[in-house]
Amino acid sequence: MATTSSRTPRTDPLTLEVVELIGTVVARYYEEYDAAAGKHALTGAQARVLGLLSLEPLPMRRIAQKLKCEPSNITGIIDRLESRGLVERRPDPADRRVKLAAPTDEGLTVARSLRDSLDFAREPLAELSREERLSLRGLLRRMIGEDAG
User: Fold this and answer.
1) Most buried residue among 14, 22, 80, 110 by CB atoms closer than 10 A?
2) Nearest CA to 87 among 111, 69, 118, 112?
3) CB contact set of 128 (below 8 Å; sequence gap of 6+)
4) Are 114 and 47 contacting, i.e. CB atoms less than 8 angstroms apart?
5) pTM, full prediction
6) Boundaries of each HTH marR-type domain copy (predicted)?
7) Could you give the maximum distance between any two Cα atoms of the chain, in Å?
8) Looking at the domain 43-137, which fold is it?
């Protein structure tokens, strides 16, 4: 099986249309996410960090890796979220030299409210059958290099 880097880019009309559709979905998602964040006086980046932390406390370096940005950017975002009482820094129980960013109770409430207000993808997905959603999930996982299982 050829690796992605050794393949010739696909430029057939179907592939180009799929790429365009993915771009449209991503753009709409970020527009809705930014609008929802604004209702909580947050930037889109702050909302995404808070949403990520609502899943599990993380060190700043790991947040930066997940969001594909510089750790220094994450430090500033965490500082602003912390000043609002939405996030706190705490020692990592596994390595006390490492600080984890973790949501406060208020931060979890805001993250849940943000997640609940994002209807863009949820409403169209609700129209798909369970089998269609499973298939879509598998295809998306393959596209990003994760196991489809």
Assistant:
1) 110
2) 111
3) 136
4) yes
5) 0.74
6) 15-145
7) 53
8) Arc Repressor Mutant, subunit A (1.10.10)
